[in-house]
C-alpha cells in the first residue's frame, strides 16, 4: 500500500514574524500546521497541511479529562551550507510510537510523519530563523478526542505538528545551572509512564519545579519513585556525571525518558574511547564522590539546550559544587562536537542529520 | 467582597433527549455548560452559563502537552420527594482545590462553584432523568490554556462544568465483578499525583485496564508503586475488604484518591459500630485471609457505582473467590443504606444531601 497523499491548504493571511531577539521558547508559531485524524474504522487518515488555527473540541473530549496524549520535540535549523536540516527525526517518530504503545494510542506511520514534517517545513521555510543558536522547534503531538467520559482508550485521535521559531538557548553564553535535588515529590516510577513522553509526567513535575524556582534553583533533580535514592533526570533532561574519569548516566530503567541527545552523547563518548557507563547511580554515590574529590563534572542533555552544565546540586541543604561552578571540559567538548555535527561544520559519521 | 455574578445565555436550539434505555455513561450532554476564565492579572472571572458548545483552543495550549488539568465527578438525581438533590457537592469542590494545589492551578471559589452548579442544574433541570438508578452525572474540570510550550504552570485556565444524563449502573441488578491484580504497571506512587484527580493518573491506568479486559476481568486492582505489595485502588474506585468481621481499607497514603464514597462508607460503618480500619493492607494478607477462610467480602466504592462487590481477585493466576462469588451482606447493607440516604428514603443524620 502506498503512502497517503498529504494535501496542502496555504494561508491567505501570513503572520508578521516576531523579532529574532524576542523569540524565547515556544511562544510564536508558524503560518501552517499539520493535522491527521484517526477513527476506529478508517485508521489514520486525511493527512493535511492547513493554516495554523485553533482546535475545536467537544468539552467532553478525553484529552481534557484522562490525559491520553503523547508528544515529541525536535528542531530544524540552517546548517553551515545554508540548508535546512533535522537531527535524527526518525528517532523522534519512533519514540512517539513507543509512547503511543504505553498510552494505548494507535501507532502512526513513521515514514509518513517524516514526509509530512519535511513538507510542512518547506511550506513554512521562511520561518526557520538564521541567527546563530536559533532554530525552528517542532512539536508533534497526539490527542484523544472522543467526546465520552468513560475511562477507556479513545476511539478517535488527532495527530498534529506545530512549529515555533525559538531563540538561542545560550544567548548570553553557556552557563552552569543550579539544581535542587527533590526530596518529596516524584516525577515517575517504574511501571508508570516515565519512559513515555506524555503530559502526565510533566504535570507531576510542575510542583517540584515551583519549589526549586522559589529557592533560586533553575531545575529539579528527580530521584527514583521507589527508594528516592537513585538519580533519574534533571528537569526535562537526562543527566550525566563524570566521576574519576568515567562518565556515568542512569540506565534506561522504565521510568526515565530515553533521550535522543542522551543516546547521541553515549555514542559520541564511545567513539572517543571515553569510558561511559549506563547504570544505577545513587545520590549518595554522587555526594561521596564530591567529598572524596572524584566528582569532576555533571551535565544535563536534551533537545532544547543540547548540553546544560551543572554548577551546583543542593542535596538536603548541602551544596555540591561541580568543577568550581564552571563549565566542565567534557561538557564543553561534547557540546562543541554535537552542535558541530548538527550544524554541518563537523563530519557526521553516524548519519544523524537529514537535510531537506 | 461579594460573589461574582453568574450570567446565563440560554440556547435557542434545544437538543432531542436520548432514550433513557440508551443513556450509558457520559455519552450525552445537556443543553448548557458552565464556564469561567482565569487570567494572571484578573484571577477567576466572568462565570457564565452558555449553550453546550465546542472549546476553541490554540494547538499550543498547555493542556494538550503537559497534562495540567484536574477534574471532579458527582451526581444529581431525583429524590423520593421528586426534588433534585446532590450528594456532598462541597466535598467535590474541596477535593478539586486539593487537586489544584498539587497541579499548581489557582484555587477556585468553592462557594461560587456550588452556586454555579445549582444554577446550571436549574437551567437544564429537564435533563435530570427520573428512572430508578439513573442520574445526571456532573463533570467539573479545569484546563490550562496558555498557548506556550515552556514546561511551567499556565497563566491562563478555564473552569468548565458539563452534565450528562447517565443510565443505571445496575440495570441488570448488582453483580459482583472480577478483578485482575496488576503486577507490572503502576497507577501512582507516593510523591506523585495519585491523590489528585488529574488526567495523568487515568492515562497511566489505561494499559492495565486493557490487559485486564483481554483476560475477561472488568477492572484492575492496583498495588503500590514502591513495593508492589500494598493494595491501593480498584479501577477508579477505592477498595474495602472484610476480614474476620473487621472492614479494612487502605489508608490515605498520598497515592490513593480520597474518595467521597469511601469517606461516607467509613462514617456509616462507624455509626453502626462495625469495626473499620484504615491501614496498609498487603495483597499477601488478603490472599492469606482467603486461604485461612477469614476473607469474607471485598468491594469497591465510587460515585458511579456507589458499591461494587468483588466476586473474584486474580493474583498471579490464583483465583481468590470472595463470598462464593455472591454479593456480600455488608456490601449489600451499605449499598442500601447509602443509596437510601442519597435518594431521600432514609434519614440523613450526616447532612450529606443538598436539595435544590
Ligand atoms: C523528561 C525528559 N527527559 C529527557 C529529555 C531529553 O530528550 P531528548 O534528548 O530526546 O530531547 C526530554 C525532552 O527533551 C524530556 O522531556
Ligand atoms: C481513581 C479513583 N479512585 C476512587 C474514586 C472514588 O471517589 P468518589 O467516591 O469520590 O467518587 C474515583 C472517582 O470516582 C477515582 O477516580
From TrEMBL, chains A, B:
Annotated pathway: Amino-acid biosynthesis; L-isoleucine biosynthesis; L-isoleucine from 2-oxobutanoate: step 4/4; Amino-acid biosynthesis; L-leucine biosynthesis; L-leucine from 3-methyl-2-oxobutanoate: step 4/4; Amino-acid biosynthesis; L-valine biosynthesis; L-valine from pyruvate: step 4/4
A GO molecular-function descriptor: L-leucine-2-oxoglutarate transaminase activity
UniProt-listed Enzyme Commission number(s): 2.6.1.42
Catalysed reactions listed for this entry: L-isoleucine + 2-oxoglutarate = (S)-3-methyl-2-oxopentanoate + L-glutamate; L-valine + 2-oxoglutarate = 3-methyl-2-oxobutanoate + L-glutamate; L-leucine + 2-oxoglutarate = 4-methyl-2-oxopentanoate + L-glutamate
SUPFAM superfamilies reported in the protein's UniProt record: D-aminoacid aminotransferase-like PLP-dependent enzymes
Any Pfam family matching the protein: Aminotran_4
Name of the top EC class for this enzyme: transferase
GO terms for biological process, alphabetical: isoleucine biosynthetic process; L-leucine biosynthetic process; L-valine biosynthetic process
Domain of life, per lineage: Bacteria
Cofactor or coenzyme needed: pyridoxal 5'-phosphate
Residues that bear N6-(pyridoxal phosphate)lysine: 197
Keywords on record: Amino-acid biosynthesis, Aminotransferase, Branched-chain amino acid biosynthesis, Pyridoxal phosphate, Transferase
Family: Belongs to the class-IV pyridoxal-phosphate-dependent aminotransferase family.
Name used for this protein in its record: Branched-chain-amino-acid aminotransferase
Annotated source species: Niallia endozanthoxylica
Amino acid at each position: 500500500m502506498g503512502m497517503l497523499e498529504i494535501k496542502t491548504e496555504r494561508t491567505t493571511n501570513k503572520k508578521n514574524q516576531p523579532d529574532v531577539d524576542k523569540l524565547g521558547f515556544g511562544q510564536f508559531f508558524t503560518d501552517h500546521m499539520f493535522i491527521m485524524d484517526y477513527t476506529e474504522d478508517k485508521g489514520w487518515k486525511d493527512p493535511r497541511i492547513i493554516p495554523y488555527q485553533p482546535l475545536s473540541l467537544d468539552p467532553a473530549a478525553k484529552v481534557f479529562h484522562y490525559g491520553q496524549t503523547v508528544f515529541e520535540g525536535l528542531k530544524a535549523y540552517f546548517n553551515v551550507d545554508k540548508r535546512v536540516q533535522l537531527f535524527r527525526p526518525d528517532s523522534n517518530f519512533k519514540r512517539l510510537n513507543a509512547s503511543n504503545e504505553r498510552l494505548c494510542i494507535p501507532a502512526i506511520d513513521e515514514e509518513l510523519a517524516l514526509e509530512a514534517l519535511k513538507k510542512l517545513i518547506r511550506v513554512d521555510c521562511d520561518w526557520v530563523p538564521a541567527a546563530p543558536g536559533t532554530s525552528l522547534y517542532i512539536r508533534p503531538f497526539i490527542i484523544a478526542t472522543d467526546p465520552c467520559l468513560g475511562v477507556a482508550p479513545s476511539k478517535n485521535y488527532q495527530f498534529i505538528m506545530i512549529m515555533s521559531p525559538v531563540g538561542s538557548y545560550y544567548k548570553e553564553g553557556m552557563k552552569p545551572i543550579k539544581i535542587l535535588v527533590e526530596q518529596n515529590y516524584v516525577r515517575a516510577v517504574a511501571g508508570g509512564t516515565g519512559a513515555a513522553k506524555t503530559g502526565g509526567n510533566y504535570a507531576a513535575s510542575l510542583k517540584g519545579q515551583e519549589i526549586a524556582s522559589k529557592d533560586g534553583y533553575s531545575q529539579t533533580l528527580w530521584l527514583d519513585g521507589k527508594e528516592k535514592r537513585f538519580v533519574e533526570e534533571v528537569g526535562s533532561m537526562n543527566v550525566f556525571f563524570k566521576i574519576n574519569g568515567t562518565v556515568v548516566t542512569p540506565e534506561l530503567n522504565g521510568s526515565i525518558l530515553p533521550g535522543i541527545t542522551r543516546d547521541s552523547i553515549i555514542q559520541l563518548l564511545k567513539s572517543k574511547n571515553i569510558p561511559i557507563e549506563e547504570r544505577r547511580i545513587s545520590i549518595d554515590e554522587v555526594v561521596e564522590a564530591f567529598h572524596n574529590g572524584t566528582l569532576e563534572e555533571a551535565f544535563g542533555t536534551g533537545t532544547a539546550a543540547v548540553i546544560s552544565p551543572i554548577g551546583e546540586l543542593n542535596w538536603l541543604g548541602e551544596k555540591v559544587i561541580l568543577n568550581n561552578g564552571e563549565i566542565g571540559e567534557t561538557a564543553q567538548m561534547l557540546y562543541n562536537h554535537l552542535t558541530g555535527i548538527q550544524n554541518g561544520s563537523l563530519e557526521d559519521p553516524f548519519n544523524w542529520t537529514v537535510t531537506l
